[in-house]
Design a protein that fits this description.
Elements (H helix, E strand, L loop, with lengths): L1 H20 L1 H19 L4 E4 L2 H8 L7 E5 L3 E5 L4 H7 L4 E4 L4 H21 L5 H17 L12 E5 L6 H10 L4 E5 L5 H4 L4 H24 L6 H14 L4 E2 L4 E4 L17 E7 L1 E3 L2 E2 L2 E7 L4 H20 L6 H14 L11 E3 L6 E5 L12 E4 L2 E4 L3 E4 L2 E5 L4 E3 L14
Parallel strand pairs: 1-5, 3-4, 5-6
Antiparallel strand pairs: 1-2, 2-3, 7-10, 8-9, 9-12, 10-11, 13-14, 15-18, 16-17, 18-19
Amino acid sequence: MRAGIRVCLQRRKALKASREASPIAKETASRMRRAREAAAGSGLDGLLVTHLPDVRYLCGFSGSSGMLLLLNKYAYFITDFRYREQARVEVSGARVVIQNDGHAEALRKILASHVGKRAREAAGPGVSGGGAQESDARGRGRQRERGEDVAGGGPEKLLLGFDPEHISYAEVTALRRRLRETARLSPLKSSLALLRAPKSPRELGIMGEGIRIAERALKEVLRAAGAATTEARLAAELEAEARRLGAESPSFETIVASGKRGALVHARPSRKRLAGVAVIDWGIVHEGYCTDCNRTLAFGRVPSALRRAHGLVLDAQERALEAVGPGVRAREVDRAAREVIEAAGLGHAFGHGLGHGVGLEVHERPHVSARSDDVLEEGMVFTIEPGIYLPGLGGVRVEDMAVVTRDGAELLTSLPRTLDPADYL
C-alpha cells in the first residue's frame, strides 16, 4: 500500500517536473512575468483574471470554468471538481485550487491567508500589537495615496486589478462584497488582450497549421460543389471537412452568401442554390488558436460592377500590406486600404473596419479600423479584409491573415484570390 503511494507521488513529481521543463511552461512563465510587471507598474498587488482566453494564455487551462489569481510571488488557479484532472495536466505556474463553495469563496479564503501572512511579516518577529497597528497605519496611508477609501482598523488589503471588458458590474459588486475584508478591486486601464497580441514562434506555428487545415477544407468542398449545392450545404460540408482534417471546431458561424445576398455582410447560409458571386467566410480552431479567411467566388455570371469591385478590393489589400510595419498605427493601415476604395467612389460601400487581431479569440487585439489607437508590434497577427457591398447586386470581400514582421508584413494565408473556383482545385 505504502509502496503504491510512493509510486503515485513519484509519478506526480515526474509529471510536474516534465511540465515545468516544457517549452509551453517556459512560455507561460514569461507571460506571467510580463503580467506581473504590468500590474506592479500600475501600483497593483496582483491581477484577478476571469476571461477564459486570458486564463488560458497565462496558465494553460483550456476548460470552460475557472479564474486565475496572480499575485507578486504566487499564482492560484481556481476551478471545480469537473476540471480537477484537466487542470492537473494543463495548468502551469499556478497552484490548482478545487473549490466546493464557489469561486468567490475560494478566492476569499486564499486572499485572507495572504493578507494575514503579510500583516505578520510587516509586524516582524516578536513585535506586539502596537507594531501591527503602526503597519496598518502605513498601509492606510498608502491606500490614501492611491485615492482609495480607507476603513479604520484591520490589516492592509490587497489591491487587485480586473479587466472591465470581461466581467460584469454585477459580478464585480458581488466580489467586492465577498472580499471586503481582504481586497479592493480596481479596473485595469489597459486590457490583458494587449499582452496576447504579439505571437510567439510557437503560436505562429500552431496558427500556420490551422490555416493549412482551413485552406485544404475549402479546396476539398469546392471539388464536390455542383449546380445543386446550396449555401447551407456548402457551409455544413466546409465545417465537416475541416473537422475531418483535424480542426477542433469552427471559430465562428460560417458565412456563405451568393447573388444579391452577398451584400449582407454577416449573412447566414440559406437554402438558396449557389448562383452568381458568392462570399465565403470561414475559420477553424486548431489547438486553441483561431483562423479567419474569406474568398469571393463566381458560380455563374459575374456582373461588371462586382468584377470591378473585386479588383478594387485586391488593390486595397495590397496597399494595406505595404503600410504594415512595427510602430505603425493600425488606423494608418485601415486608411491605406480605404483610400483605394474611396478614390473609386465606393467609400460608402465599405462600412466596416479593415481587420482585427486573431489568436485565442477570432476577434482580439489589435483593432484595425479608422478609430483604433493600437500600435502594431512585431508578431501581431490580424486580418486584412476590405469589402464592397452593393445592395440589390451583391458583395465582394477578400480576407487574409498577416503577421507583422521586422521589415513589414507577411501573409499567412496562401489561397489564390481569384473569382474562379477552378483556380483553387
